[in-house]
Design brief:
Blueprint: H1 4-11, H2 14-45, E1 56-62, H3 70-82, E2 87-93, E3 103-108, E4 118-124, H4 128-132, E5 136-139, E6 148-149, H5 150-154, E7 163-167, H6 168-175, E8 184-187, E9 193-200, E10 217-220, E11 222-223, E12 231-236, H7 241-255, E13 260-266, H8 267-274, H9 276-310, H10 312-320, H11 325-362, H12 371-395
Parallel strand pairs: 4-10, 6-11, 7-9
Antiparallel strand pairs: 1-12, 1-13, 2-12, 3-4, 3-8, 5-9, 7-10, 8-9
Helix pairs in contact: 2-9, 2-11, 2-12, 9-10, 9-12, 11-12
Length: 405
Amino acid sequence: MEIGPIFSALRRHRLTASLVVLEIALTCAIVCNAVFLVGDRLAIADTPSGIDEANVVHIVASDIGRHGDDHARTEADLAALRAIPGVMAATISNSVPFGDTSWGSNLNLAPNQRTSTVDVKNFYGESVGETLGTHLVAGRFFEPTEYVWLDDLVAGKAKPAAVIVITQGLARHLFGDASALGRSVWAGSSDTEMRVVGVVDRLAAAGGVDRSDVELTTLMPWRESTSVGGSFIIRSQPGQADRVLALAVETLKKIDPRRVIVKKETYKAIRDDRFAGDRAMAGLLVAVCVILLIVTALGIVGLASFWVGQRRRQIGVRRALGARRVDVLRYFQTENFLLASMGIVIGMALAYGINLFLMREYELPRLPLVYLPIGAVLLWLLGQVAVLAPALRAASVPPVVATRG
């Protein structure tokens, strides 16, 4: 088909054609970035924690009054929890992956560094790595004799064991591709050397962290108790998490009826709460995309219907001169394809510009180029579907219309 007449007709309707092109361009720019952000938010919500999520439960308890020996009380609580049928492991830890509380520090590659090498999130608790079900890829976890009580450490009654377990992500950050086992690190401004004795596959950080820091975590050989802010972590046998959670709460209340259970939750609830905002944002962006596409489709339908009404006599003349219905249909589809193509070209440039702004202001990743052709194909298909009904009406105009007037 000759497209010269199509461009000639569009030049006679510059304003309406320009408005459609602008509408398609804005839709292309916004939809490309919105679809990318939806994928990015959902990818963040699917960030692996590195633990046995299906079988981990979490209990936060608060004690009323003083109970004497907190260490003995902690050991009694854990012994009772580990005796529950279906419990594989139990401990008291300072936090859980993606939890709302976290303890952080910095790690250095030399003692008394002025500038820290990396900021990390730390997990404390006896056998917390084993309890969470983290996967050890090199070395070992801590020996029982290497643990010290955190409150004794803070009070200066004990010295920290010179061992540490880190994640693979942190090992790569510190030592590159070299093995981390046996290497030394120093926490904060401490001059106490800690030797890496184990490396776990991954262990997601707790608290507010971004994607670049989520795997920069450590395990420390420090025993926790509820008196210093620790909470119970229990891993059940497969499929028994809910039952174990209920029995664990009942057991803790039997040991001390005055104990207040502040929170009891499966790990799924922790994860859902952590990423609720990301999923809500993804849903909102999907709704925005759908609304924009509907508005754009309605704009194309309205413009095509307007032009069909204006060109009825012209269409009738073409039909009288021998144009087939398929020729009229192809004319309007080609016209829409050209308008959509112009809008898409402008929209791609706008999409890239919007992404640069988001990268600079909100530290979002770069928009992958694959989203641009996907957006282009989507808008081309949308345009062809939207113009189909007006084009069919135009193709049904009889030749006799050319004689009227």
